[in-house]
Amino acid sequence: MFKRALIGVAILLLGTSAHAKMDNKTPHSLGGSISVGAAEFNGSKNDGDGVVAVYGFYRYQWMPELALEAGIKTGMEADDWECDRINDHRYECNQSNDLLFNLDANQLDYQNYALSVRGQYPLTERNSVFLRIGGHFYDYEIAKSGTKVVSQDGVGLISQVGWQYQWDSGVALQASYEYTGMGDLETFTLSSGIAYRF
Fold this sequence. Notes:
By secondary structure, this protein is mainly β. It has one helix at residues 2-16, and strands at residues 28-41, 50-63, 66-77, 80-87, 90-96, 107-122, 127-144, 147-166, 171-182, 185-197. The longest helix is centred in the N-terminal third of the chain and has 15 residues, at 2-16.
């Protein structure tokens, strides 16, 4: 599957080389994003097994359509909040601390250190679609009230597809869908982010 994805990226990027052009900015970018979505552990699909994450990255655009990206992501479970109105000026909110993944656990924390290749295809002068594929070192822990239930680290796959809008100032906004494989844990998230090319 990984080889097929790499072949697909190569075909996409070879086809874009005739259409893409490098602007007068340097090839360096810094950025970040916030993502929310779902998580699965060993194939579990419970409603409420949500995650939220933040991602920071450095990108080097070595060709108009190809870039290398290095980033760090940290994430955790996303709990629901239930709020009741007590009176006109007071609300009482409680965290819905449901169990995760059919396990006796209610906490999830994870970190990723990623290195990936990003290809982009321009739709207009400012709009483009992109595909990012890479590997990452991950470390996660699933716990119940601070007591570790599952802990794992290793190397996994990250893939992302999205849209970006870039201004002449170097500022870009992006929206994307991302898959992150971390051994027995997988996340499927939607993200929005900002980058600055300098």
